[in-house]
């Protein structure tokens, strides 16, 4: 029988996240906002909460202030007198004079915390994936199979498997081999079209973890990485099993997993939330995702001073959003976003405090925090112009960095703002409108 007080959860949250730049210019990847009112790390921590895991270490490193502030504001809800805790643990150089140099080294530098926890099992998690998962299932399988290490895996097509670390397993799911981004991935027994890709979720028996971390630290040839070093060695010497994610729960919400480590993956995962039947439904009461509740007024859709009504279609609105005479379609607006008169926002993600001026056109964009888009500005329609100012992803998503300052808008001779865009703001190129907007952040 699984008992949560015998398991220590360690969340790896110190990655640089360079492929997600410029969103990671001022924050670590786990602290990047997602889905309007969440941070990416909220999904892993909510999984811990619902899985009855109440002893959690969050290993931070790169630009950790945002992560630590969020842990304080959103996750200060554990009871230390009951043995519960969630601690941010930056590199403390207890074992040397270096920062964390790999996933295994990060754990080794905190090996005393693992020992002092008296945990029987350690589950190692990533803080930068978006998914729902009941960790009790993999912990139960770990015990039932008498495993030393259990690795969570998901079934993917053989073509997609070429981008993952892939497990070669037998009929009992015991791992025979591990291949990093193989050109010819091994298939799942009984399913020749699918492969088992590692999700970066590991359950160790605590004594085994301590032993292998110590041995790896002494190995001068090691890169101190789970996938490159620990996993291949353990397969040869210990009982290592795979765990199939999403096969023991009937809900599609528990089959969705996304690594949002690139701009395109991050943008697509946000857009997934706007599907007719979202593969990850944030409105599900069964497994709510905990977040920081910003003290802000409810969202508002209103008329401007000239009587032009705001319109919102198939979008997520967070606390404090105001759409005043503008049009928002298939977009996610974070807390405090303001969309001005005759502005058009389509297929975009706007983070906290973004102000979109009157008459603006915003398409296929991610706009980071606190950006003020001046009246009449256009983003997402001219790739050449956008490319001289902003990052553009391989799939054409324009990213405006945090606190970006635009040049002053041009003025006509009489000092008035020039007329912006000769089209009515109610027509997104003639596309039909569906009045099924969603408002989040309200009781």
TrEMBL record:
It comes from the Bacteria. Pathway: Glycan biosynthesis; glycogen biosynthesis. Its EC number is 2.7.7.27. One of its GO terms (molecular function) is nucleotidyltransferase activity. The record marks 61, 99 as: Could play a key role in the communication between the regulatory and the substrate sites. Pfam families: Hexapep_GlmU, NTP_transferase. InterPro entries: ADP-Glc_PPase, ADP_Glu_pyroP_CS, GlgC_bac, GlmU/GlgC-like_hexapep, NTP_transferase_dom, Nucleotide-diphossugar_trans, Trimer_LpxA-like_sf. CDD domains: ADP_Glucose_PP, LbH_G1P_AT_C. Residues 408-443 are annotated as: Disordered. Residues 298-400 form the Glucose-1-phosphate adenylyltransferase/Bifunctional protein GlmU-like C-terminal hexapeptide domain. It catalyses: alpha-D-glucose 1-phosphate + ATP + H(+) = ADP-alpha-D-glucose + diphosphate. Keywords: ATP-binding, Carbohydrate metabolism, Glycogen biosynthesis, Glycogen metabolism, Nucleotide-binding, Nucleotidyltransferase, Transferase. Alpha-D-glucose 1-phosphate binds at residues 100, 165, 180-181, 198. Residues 9-274 form the Nucleotidyl transferase domain. Belongs to the bacterial/plant glucose-1-phosphate adenylyltransferase family. Homotetramer. Involved in the biosynthesis of ADP-glucose, a building block required for the elongation reactions to produce glycogen. Catalyzes the reaction between ATP and alpha-D-glucose 1-phosphate (G1P) to produce pyrophosphate and ADP-Glc. This is Glucose-1-phosphate adenylyltransferase. The gene is glgC.
